[in-house]
Amino acid sequence: MSDGKLADQFFDAAIELLQRVRDEEAEPIRAAGTLLADTVADGGRLFAFGAGHSSLPAQDVVYRAGGLALMNLLTVPGVVGVDVMPATLGSALERVDGLASTVLECSPLRSGDALVIISLSGRNALPVEMAMKARALGVKVIGVTSVAYATQTRSRHSTGTYLRDHCDVVLDSKIAIGDATLTVDTVPAPFAPASTVVTSAIMQAVMATAAGTLADRGIEPPLLRSGNVDGGHEWNSRVMEQYGDRIFYQR
């Protein structure tokens, strides 16, 4: 099998997943975008969290040209990204009970805010506990996950529940268990994961919906512009000054 054919198969698999999400998750995406718009209009703050590779779509909407300036990254030391050493420590921390509660208690989140939690499996203690604790604090929670995991795996949280069970809005990425999209006889394990591609697209679709919803209400969306276009820095300075009390990544 040629490398080119495998590349085509991956693109086909990713495109099929994106089409499924577009067609089957249109209403949840609209609801999530509306929830974020409501939060902005009501003076709330926006946060996103993901552990391990699920942090990549969360980071993609923070301090991003064309994105909402109010979206802040909720960080958990050793969990966001894959820069912790050893890398396996990050996966282990996702299974630690109590970590999410401690993080939220030390975070700026408060009642009236919105938090997007991204977890492909949604089964580990960290995302489940984070969703439960956030809602108890009066924070609205949007979960981005693969619902298939909740039907075919065992929860690692003491309640036996999953991320999807503790959200105001659930977005299903449609990713199959194990994430990888390709298999061939000559390769002993499945490969070519698509969760980052699909989840990042979901996040951008939600951001676009939120911006459009605000505009429809006569509210200028607090969007950032690229610093590499003329006037971009001046534009961003204005937005950050106007919304400085709701932006935490510049402090």
UniProtKB/TrEMBL annotation:
Residues 36-220 form the SIS domain. Pfam families: SIS_2. Belongs to the UPF0309 family. This is UPF0309 protein MQN93_16270. It comes from Streptomyces spinosisporus. The lineage of its organism: Bacteria, Bacillati, Actinomycetota, Actinomycetes, Kitasatosporales.
